[in-house]
Amino acid sequence: MKNLLKVGRLLPVILLCIGVTAFAQERKVTGKVTSSEDKAGVPGVNVIEKGKTNGTATDLDGNYSIMVSGDATLVFSAVGYSTKEVAVGSQSVVDVSLAADVTQLSEIVVTGYGTQEKKEITSAVASVKSEDFNRGTVNDPAQLLQGKVAGLSITRPGGDPNGGFNIRLRGISTFGANTEPLIVIDGVIGASLSTVDPNDIASMDVLKDGSAAAIYGTRGGSGVILITTKSGKAGRVNVDYNASLAVESVANSIDFMSASEYAKVPGAKNFGNNTDWLDVVTSPGRSHVHNIAVSGGTAKTTYRASVNLRDATGVAINSGFQQLNTRLNLTQKALNNRATFSVNLTTTTKDAEYGFKESLRYAIVANPTMPVWDGTTTSATAGGRFAGYAERDIFDFFNPLSIAKQNKNEGKDIRVLANIRGDYDFDDFVKGLRLSVSYSQQDESDLRGQYYAKTSKFRGFGRNGLAGRQTNQRNNKLFETTLNYVKDFEGVNMTLLGGYSYQEFFNEGFGAEGGNFLTDAFTYNNLGAALDFKNGLGSVYSYANSNKLVAFFGRANLNFKNNFFVSASARYEGSSRFGANEKFGLFPALSAGVNLSNLVTIPAVNSLKIRGSYGLTGTQPGDSYISLQRFGPAGSFFYNGSFVNSYAPVSNANPNLKWETKAEYNFGADFALFDSRLTGTLDYYNRTTRDLYLLKNVPVPPNLASQTLLNIGELNNSGLELSLNYNVISNSNFSWTTGGNFGTINMKVNKLTSEELPDGDTFYLAGMGAPGQNAFTLVRVKEGTEFGQLWGPIQEGVNANGTPKFKDLDGNGSYCDCDADKTVIGNGLPTLTFGFNNNLKFGNWDANFFFRGALGHEILNSYRGFYENTEGTTVDNYNVVNTKYYNPAIKKAAVNNTHVEKADFLRLDNATIGYNVQLGEGSMINKLRLYLSGQNLFTVTGYTGIDPEVRWADQIDGDGGGGPGGVDPFSPGIERRSTYFTTRVLTLGLNLSF
Amino acid sequence: MKKSIVNKVMALALGLMFFAQSCTNLDEELYSDLAAENFFKSEAEYIAALGAAYSSFGGMGNHFGLWTMNELASDELVITTKGGDWYDGGVLIQLHEHNITIDNPIVGNTWNFLYGGVNTCNRLLYQFQQLPASDGRDATIAELRAIRALWYYWLLDSFGNVPVVTDFTDTEAPASKTRAEVYAFVEKELNETIPLLSTAKDGTTYGRINKWAALAVRCKLYLNAGVYTGTPQWQKAADDAQAIINSGKYSLESSYKSNFAVNNSGSNENIFVYPYDKVFAGGFNWPMMTLHYASQGVYNFTAQPWNGYSAVEEFYNTYVNATADTQFPEVYGGSDNPGTQGNVWKGTAIAPAQGTQDSRISNFVVGPQFNADGTRASDPGADSDDPDGAPLTFTPKINTIYPNGWRQGGARIGKYEYELGGTPNMSNDFVILRYADILLARAEALWQLNNGNAESLSLVNQIRSRAGVTPFAAPLTPEKLFAERGREMFAEMTRRQDLIRFGKFNKEWWAKNASDPKYKLFPIPKGARDVNPKLVQNPGYPN
After folding, report:
1. What is the model's pTM?
2. Cα four-point dihedral sign B160, B162, B166, B168
């Protein structure tokens, strides 16, 4: 309060100062600001009198008018142009021509709560502009960045049009729910990627190290991706129309036997047909994408409005989606240009048919001599138990076409994101002080429906028709306010930031599932018609939960004469999900850089900045209420002749539950060599995550529940990242730039135990599943060893009875099917990931080739582990997988080292060739470009499975018609049997601008 | 001027802080979760809390727990490896062959299941002890102690040397007690609580431990006392059985099968059951565990069964063979089952053969299987060497335990009635204590006290008569007692105890060689000893 009083006393003095300024002698200067490029007027240029506080902006035609004092110098500045200073002298008309500043545009890097010039950046931040994004048919923003940033892995095994991408930055630094980087879209923290259409993105900036991400506190632990959407520019109205048409085909599945091959296997069940099941369950996918954007503005108002329409079908029958996305970005200046209001509104609606991966899975294992139809009919029109589809009463098999055709798996997603921001420039009050207040709200709604027909052996038949319906709603509200202060003094440029952030989340939903229908007619639209609900056999649930985050943060950036740079930041953040004793954590960061080339001259070096940083970031628990002791339903209790619910503890109180803390060092260099033709960035990082969340067995008593989520465990990641860009040839009719990025990963599990809880230093995960291999686990996580170990026996031959002969590793004379005779048989994590790009321009033609790959990882080929053998049950029931490793002598399915394959790969991810149609002078069309693009054109790999792509986590699948299991973050490197086939996409596209 | 800037910034920051004060509250708001402080407030909530002590029994009726461990380690049931299916790391065959490792997950699950039951009782005892004293509270406390005694009885029986934890607030990792100490504890708890428990046998005690259920537990404790402590307690076992008989509340049902019917809650023979229900209390999934994939059509089940458990052929033969099986005489030497002869399924079951008509053959699903619509059920994946090929026929004969047991090999468990159109969750109540067991216990105890005891023979013959087979003539032999217990108590988790008590557990039987006596106790699971290093491993197992 004391400070408040002081300010109160100061107020009259400040007012007096302002008053004095107003009385100085003034005259009027007018003029026009034009672009040196096209001589057109430039609207929205800031015109200020140097050293004073008065200023104005040019109007739509570039004209301005300003009152100046005697001997004034005017400063003209605008985004995208070099700033120019002009001494007015005695002139009353000052016309100025501004040169476009290309470097400035491309060198601006978006950091958390602000931007910086690239030369000032002292931490590991990678910025990718729209012109460098991936091309072709890109339906997910994450795909734009795939392979573009060293150390950023974006993967989607297979070509499911509705499948999301896994995003991992520098490996994983938590085993909890938050393994993916935090997404920030136009300042909205935690915005959903699905609110933004890839066409509307101007740039994506990746905050890679701890010091850059620390400003995001408890959510920066897995890195941050900042997305900036395109906005309008003052000047003439622009209309952009982008359209593309694509066809998609199966690129790879897995090799299995044809009917004639299968029929020769001893014990084959030959039904006399020749069915190509792959062909039966797939068809070429088609998609088209349309994007229209209208943008423009005046000196005070800029806008961009866009509509994106996507319609895609996948290669699996009945899979695809239709999506409509709209976006409005509007900026309005007010209060004598001191205030700026920005409004971003986006909506996305998506109707999806998810289809069934099981249809693909059982197409691979279906007996190829089996007919599609049971013989009573050749189409689904006839009756019969299974509507005419041929089925077999065996375990874990369903007619693949019946799965896809008879059943429904659909959904509708709606995303709404609204953001309003007000900025006020306090230059009149304190020069360089700016206040910003923003509020955003995001609503996401998912509605799902499934129906399994009465005649579908897959899930529906036993239940006499089965319907499910679920809805989930997620709401989050974010309020933030920041103060920015910029000051130059004695060659030092100082930028200070302080802020407060409040965000609350609310999730709710409900769902029901029930079967026993009179008719299939309702599908999932009339759950009340399911007799199961009357009989008590239907299931129903609802839930709601909330959480909150509160943070105070600050940052100081110092630039000493463009030679030395220092940045320090801290976020003090609390989460409701933390335990009562640990509500708030502090996440500081410090980084510094020196521009060596400014200080010493090094031959051939045009610029060289070296930098180092250290920062702490956190991760919060994936769920609310974990720190509380809770009770929940625990079965039923037969009490006095009827059942009542019984309740039991579901979690122990842990008031000390806190954040996971990741401490990260980063040393890097940014350089430009040989007349700046070779530019690049090199980074080394070493991060240690402590207090990892682990669900540990705890003694009961004193605990009520036998497991508690505790902060125990330590993980270390380190790696080297290099990106290079080389301008090979650059002249007016031919240019060629080539570039690549490389990232290494080294992950080690340092600790899984504590002194109080010494057990659990090793655990085994990833059960292989049925048939017969439920108890076989493939993954070992052990304290003090590398993360990602695949663990199993070594096959060294075949026994007389056809079972694989496993090596006696512990030397006790025989193989024991126990831990002592198992060893590391691979590692699911790559040692190197890379992307490699070539851009060519020749006259009106342009071409781009982008390769991507990973080296050093292994993948378990599950199909081989189950079906590549001549065991009776395999041959009797299923087809036989037939890769180059097939050995007819092996008569037993038993996963071992021979099924774990090297999965190094190099993929031509994208090749695009484009033509810019030359339009005559005065044409109404500014730009017309046609292009042809191919995605996933070829893959070089020795892996025999579906996709050698890195598997960061294990997507467990169900057997015998069960639903998919969970995702296990501890178990990388497994290709499960329900993997969508990879696809090849050919796109014909058009960019039109007028 | 500089200072004033600082002041201004500070003022603004403070203003923000002040505004923020109301927005820094990070207490969690709950919606669909129940915090501990909001629970245990009303009588209905006490009942719901007490229910947790009983819903712990929900793990009895599914695969991979206490029941699986006991049954697979005996000669009643086996899960053969069927080609690619059911090997599961060899942990199932280990139990059958008595080659059990300390990390066998079924043993580990059982330990957790039993101590989970104990811990729930301890927690509830602690919570109820905090309530003001009342008759209701004291009765509940006695009931909880008796339930806990049952859990400890199973721990004593399976593992022997285990820690006895009774105080919920005791945070020390508990040390192992000797088997005799655990025995003494169970006896003491039952002695102290039996007088306090309800004597009613009606809706208020159905599915709960009343006095008679606790007596039945003590009777079985005494019956096996020689195994547990080295000192038999035959008289005490006979007396407890007599007390239950004298109560007049229980009697043999005229139909053996009715004790296991879908709606078996009216049985006068079942003393303690866990009431399963397809709607309210799922988890009893024997049809899934035992029946063939193609049995789905036989019963119109809503889900496809897994083709796991089958009966050992020689055990099955003790029902249909009038004279003892000669294959493994040390186990089946006295298994004569005289009675009316008629058509039964034997061997490879291609055609009916002559055998004893024992009504308890309903314990099995055996022979040709027909779909609910009358057509022959079929196994399209039938093994090429299966004698009857694709038509689904459960043959008592099993060719081998590994690597490729016939998919249709072995009679299947039919003990409980399978509901037509049933779900994976059965509604039959799971029988934990049964009057017939008590009659046989008294018969055995009296025989041990005096091998010419006439009441002993008559009790056994009550059981035989109900089964529709010829009563035994004197003298009663231990082999006959043992075999009769086997026929009567199939799949009720008594066979392993019987094998041990009658000295047969380590003998040779089908697909099992004579085994080391150490396997009479299961190993203390590795996982449990990792958490609590004070636990002592059972003799003979690797430390």
Report:
1. 0.86
2. negative
